[in-house]
Amino acid sequence: MNDGLTYETWNENISNQLSNRFDSEMEVLKWAYHTYDKIVYACSFGAEGIVLIDLISKIKKDANIVFLDTGLHFKETYELIKQIEAKYPDLSIQHLKPNMTLKEQEEKCGGELWKHHPDLCCHIRKIKPLQDYLSSMDAWISGLRREQSETRRNVRYINKDDQFKLIKICPLIHWRWDDIWNYIKLNQLPYHKLHDHHYPSIGCEVCTLPVNDGADLRAGRWAQHRKTECGLHQLR
Question: Where is the active site (predicted)?
Fold first, then answer.
Protein backbone atom coordinates (compact mmCIF):
# COMPACT_ATOMS: atom_id res chain seq x y z
CA MET A 1 0.00 0.00 0.00
CA ASN A 2 1.38 3.40 -1.02
CA ASP A 3 0.85 6.84 0.53
CA GLY A 4 0.04 5.26 3.90
CA LEU A 5 -3.47 6.70 4.06
CA THR A 6 -5.79 4.41 6.01
CA TYR A 7 -8.63 5.10 8.41
CA GLU A 8 -6.28 4.51 11.34
CA THR A 9 -3.54 6.77 9.95
CA TRP A 10 -5.84 9.43 8.48
CA ASN A 11 -4.12 12.76 7.99
CA GLU A 12 -6.06 15.74 6.70
CA ASN A 13 -3.00 17.34 5.10
CA ILE A 14 -2.06 14.17 3.23
CA SER A 15 -5.64 13.78 2.06
CA ASN A 16 -5.74 17.36 0.76
CA GLN A 17 -2.39 16.97 -1.00
CA LEU A 18 -3.54 13.79 -2.71
CA SER A 19 -6.88 15.27 -3.78
CA ASN A 20 -5.16 18.35 -5.20
CA ARG A 21 -2.84 16.29 -7.37
CA PHE A 22 -5.66 14.47 -9.17
CA ASP A 23 -6.69 15.99 -12.50
CA SER A 24 -9.42 13.51 -13.36
CA GLU A 25 -11.64 10.72 -12.10
CA MET A 26 -9.39 8.19 -13.88
CA GLU A 27 -6.38 9.36 -11.88
CA VAL A 28 -8.40 8.95 -8.68
CA LEU A 29 -9.41 5.42 -9.62
CA LYS A 30 -5.90 4.43 -10.72
CA TRP A 31 -4.54 5.67 -7.40
CA ALA A 32 -7.25 3.85 -5.47
CA TYR A 33 -6.69 0.46 -7.10
CA HIS A 34 -2.92 0.87 -6.89
CA THR A 35 -3.08 1.83 -3.23
CA TYR A 36 -5.67 -0.56 -1.78
CA ASP A 37 -5.84 -4.30 -2.28
CA LYS A 38 -9.07 -4.61 -0.30
CA ILE A 39 -11.33 -2.20 -2.13
CA VAL A 40 -14.87 -2.51 -3.46
CA TYR A 41 -17.36 -0.40 -5.35
CA ALA A 42 -20.85 -0.33 -3.79
CA CYS A 43 -23.17 0.26 -6.73
CA SER A 44 -26.91 1.00 -6.84
CA PHE A 45 -26.98 0.80 -10.67
CA GLY A 46 -28.23 4.31 -11.23
CA ALA A 47 -26.75 6.45 -14.01
CA GLU A 48 -23.66 7.35 -11.96
CA GLY A 49 -23.15 3.67 -11.19
CA ILE A 50 -23.08 2.72 -14.86
CA VAL A 51 -20.48 5.38 -15.59
CA LEU A 52 -18.29 4.26 -12.68
CA ILE A 53 -18.52 0.60 -13.66
CA ASP A 54 -17.33 1.45 -17.17
CA LEU A 55 -14.48 3.60 -15.84
CA ILE A 56 -13.44 0.98 -13.28
CA SER A 57 -13.48 -1.77 -15.91
CA LYS A 58 -10.82 0.13 -17.88
CA ILE A 59 -8.50 0.03 -14.87
CA LYS A 60 -9.36 -3.28 -13.22
CA LYS A 61 -11.58 -5.48 -15.33
CA ASP A 62 -12.07 -8.02 -12.54
CA ALA A 63 -12.95 -5.44 -9.87
CA ASN A 64 -15.31 -6.29 -7.02
CA ILE A 65 -18.76 -4.69 -7.16
CA VAL A 66 -21.42 -5.09 -4.47
CA PHE A 67 -25.13 -4.39 -4.82
CA LEU A 68 -27.28 -3.96 -1.71
CA ASP A 69 -30.09 -6.32 -2.63
CA THR A 70 -32.84 -5.29 -0.23
CA GLY A 71 -35.43 -7.49 -1.93
CA LEU A 72 -37.45 -4.36 -2.65
CA HIS A 73 -35.89 -3.09 -5.87
CA PHE A 74 -37.62 -2.45 -9.18
CA LYS A 75 -37.62 -5.35 -11.63
CA GLU A 76 -35.85 -3.00 -14.04
CA THR A 77 -32.92 -2.80 -11.62
CA TYR A 78 -32.40 -6.56 -11.70
CA GLU A 79 -32.78 -6.57 -15.50
CA LEU A 80 -30.05 -3.92 -15.77
CA ILE A 81 -27.70 -5.90 -13.54
CA LYS A 82 -28.02 -8.86 -15.92
CA GLN A 83 -27.15 -6.57 -18.83
CA ILE A 84 -24.08 -5.28 -17.00
CA GLU A 85 -22.96 -8.80 -16.12
CA ALA A 86 -23.18 -9.73 -19.81
CA LYS A 87 -21.27 -6.62 -20.93
CA TYR A 88 -18.52 -6.92 -18.29
CA PRO A 89 -18.15 -10.67 -17.71
CA ASP A 90 -14.91 -10.34 -15.75
CA LEU A 91 -16.40 -8.09 -13.08
CA SER A 92 -17.38 -9.74 -9.81
CA ILE A 93 -20.89 -8.46 -8.95
CA GLN A 94 -22.09 -9.70 -5.58
CA HIS A 95 -25.61 -9.27 -4.20
CA LEU A 96 -25.47 -8.37 -0.50
CA LYS A 97 -28.66 -9.43 1.22
CA PRO A 98 -29.91 -8.62 4.73
CA ASN A 99 -29.79 -11.26 7.44
CA MET A 100 -33.55 -10.80 7.83
CA THR A 101 -35.98 -11.77 5.09
CA LEU A 102 -38.89 -9.42 4.42
CA LYS A 103 -41.19 -11.89 6.18
CA GLU A 104 -38.93 -12.03 9.24
CA GLN A 105 -38.71 -8.25 9.26
CA GLU A 106 -42.49 -7.97 9.17
CA GLU A 107 -42.87 -10.44 12.04
CA LYS A 108 -40.33 -8.59 14.17
CA CYS A 109 -40.94 -4.95 13.24
CA GLY A 110 -44.39 -4.82 11.66
CA GLY A 111 -45.57 -4.73 8.09
CA GLU A 112 -44.32 -2.15 5.56
CA LEU A 113 -41.59 -0.91 7.88
CA TRP A 114 -40.45 1.54 5.19
CA LYS A 115 -43.67 3.50 5.72
CA HIS A 116 -43.63 3.96 9.49
CA HIS A 117 -39.91 3.67 10.29
CA PRO A 118 -37.88 4.12 7.08
CA ASP A 119 -34.60 4.70 8.93
CA LEU A 120 -34.86 1.32 10.63
CA CYS A 121 -35.76 -0.36 7.34
CA CYS A 122 -32.69 1.18 5.67
CA HIS A 123 -30.53 0.09 8.59
CA ILE A 124 -31.68 -3.53 8.41
CA ARG A 125 -31.71 -3.91 4.66
CA LYS A 126 -28.81 -1.68 3.57
CA ILE A 127 -26.53 -0.31 6.27
CA LYS A 128 -25.99 -3.48 8.31
CA PRO A 129 -25.22 -5.75 5.30
CA LEU A 130 -22.73 -3.22 3.93
CA GLN A 131 -21.20 -2.67 7.37
CA ASP A 132 -20.61 -6.40 7.73
CA TYR A 133 -19.06 -6.62 4.27
CA LEU A 134 -16.86 -3.55 4.61
CA SER A 135 -15.43 -4.73 7.92
CA SER A 136 -12.83 -6.67 5.91
CA MET A 137 -12.10 -3.83 3.45
CA ASP A 138 -9.61 -0.94 3.52
CA ALA A 139 -11.54 1.36 1.20
CA TRP A 140 -14.76 1.62 -0.78
CA ILE A 141 -15.80 3.58 -3.83
CA SER A 142 -18.99 5.60 -4.10
CA GLY A 143 -20.66 7.51 -6.94
CA LEU A 144 -21.51 10.59 -4.85
CA ARG A 145 -21.53 13.88 -6.75
CA ARG A 146 -21.53 17.36 -5.25
CA GLU A 147 -24.36 18.46 -7.53
CA GLN A 148 -26.75 15.78 -6.25
CA SER A 149 -27.89 17.57 -3.10
CA GLU A 150 -26.95 20.15 -0.48
CA THR A 151 -25.84 17.37 1.87
CA ARG A 152 -23.26 16.25 -0.69
CA ARG A 153 -21.73 19.65 -1.49
CA ASN A 154 -18.57 19.05 0.51
CA VAL A 155 -17.73 15.50 -0.57
CA ARG A 156 -14.08 15.15 -1.61
CA TYR A 157 -12.17 12.66 -3.74
CA ILE A 158 -10.81 10.99 -0.60
CA ASN A 159 -12.90 10.91 2.55
CA LYS A 160 -12.55 9.57 6.06
CA ASP A 161 -15.61 7.39 6.62
CA ASP A 162 -16.29 7.37 10.35
CA GLN A 163 -19.39 5.21 9.98
CA PHE A 164 -17.67 2.23 8.35
CA LYS A 165 -14.19 3.15 9.63
CA LEU A 166 -12.35 3.07 6.33
CA ILE A 167 -11.48 5.31 3.39
CA LYS A 168 -14.27 6.33 0.99
CA ILE A 169 -13.28 7.38 -2.52
CA CYS A 170 -15.64 9.45 -4.69
CA PRO A 171 -14.22 9.92 -8.22
CA LEU A 172 -17.25 11.71 -9.72
CA ILE A 173 -17.58 14.63 -7.32
CA HIS A 174 -17.14 17.26 -10.07
CA TRP A 175 -19.39 15.58 -12.65
CA ARG A 176 -22.74 17.18 -13.44
CA TRP A 177 -25.92 15.36 -14.46
CA ASP A 178 -25.34 16.31 -18.11
CA ASP A 179 -21.79 14.92 -17.93
CA ILE A 180 -23.14 11.58 -16.72
CA TRP A 181 -25.59 11.31 -19.59
CA ASN A 182 -23.15 12.53 -22.22
CA TYR A 183 -20.79 9.75 -21.15
CA ILE A 184 -23.53 7.10 -21.22
CA LYS A 185 -24.71 8.12 -24.67
CA LEU A 186 -21.22 8.59 -26.13
CA ASN A 187 -20.22 5.11 -24.99
CA GLN A 188 -23.61 3.55 -25.73
CA LEU A 189 -23.89 2.08 -22.24
CA PRO A 190 -26.96 0.26 -20.94
CA TYR A 191 -28.81 2.21 -18.26
CA HIS A 192 -31.79 1.95 -15.95
CA LYS A 193 -34.95 2.32 -18.04
CA LEU A 194 -36.76 4.23 -15.29
CA HIS A 195 -34.43 7.16 -15.98
CA ASP A 196 -36.55 7.67 -19.12
CA HIS A 197 -39.63 8.05 -16.93
CA HIS A 198 -38.57 10.89 -14.60
CA TYR A 199 -36.65 8.80 -12.05
CA PRO A 200 -33.24 10.53 -11.76
CA SER A 201 -32.42 8.78 -8.46
CA ILE A 202 -33.49 5.17 -8.06
CA GLY A 203 -33.59 3.09 -4.89
CA CYS A 204 -36.11 0.63 -3.52
CA GLU A 205 -39.41 0.57 -5.38
CA VAL A 206 -41.42 1.22 -2.20
CA CYS A 207 -39.48 4.43 -1.43
CA THR A 208 -38.88 5.94 -4.88
CA LEU A 209 -41.19 8.17 -6.93
CA PRO A 210 -40.76 10.04 -10.23
CA VAL A 211 -40.01 13.77 -10.03
CA ASN A 212 -41.02 16.79 -12.06
CA ASP A 213 -38.60 18.31 -14.52
CA GLY A 214 -36.31 20.79 -12.78
CA ALA A 215 -36.88 19.33 -9.32
CA ASP A 216 -34.09 18.23 -7.00
CA LEU A 217 -32.56 15.04 -8.39
CA ARG A 218 -33.30 13.20 -5.12
CA ALA A 219 -36.79 14.62 -4.57
CA GLY A 220 -38.36 11.27 -5.36
CA ARG A 221 -36.55 9.43 -2.58
CA TRP A 222 -38.60 9.00 0.63
CA ALA A 223 -40.90 11.75 -0.65
CA GLN A 224 -43.40 11.16 2.17
CA HIS A 225 -40.77 11.54 4.90
CA ARG A 226 -38.31 14.13 6.16
CA LYS A 227 -35.49 11.95 4.93
CA THR A 228 -33.03 12.48 2.07
CA GLU A 229 -30.38 9.81 2.69
CA CYS A 230 -30.59 6.10 3.45
CA GLY A 231 -27.80 6.45 6.01
CA LEU A 232 -24.94 4.90 4.05
CA HIS A 233 -23.30 8.29 3.70
CA GLN A 234 -22.74 10.31 6.86
CA LEU A 235 -21.98 13.62 5.24
CA ARG A 236 -20.49 16.69 6.88
Answer: 230
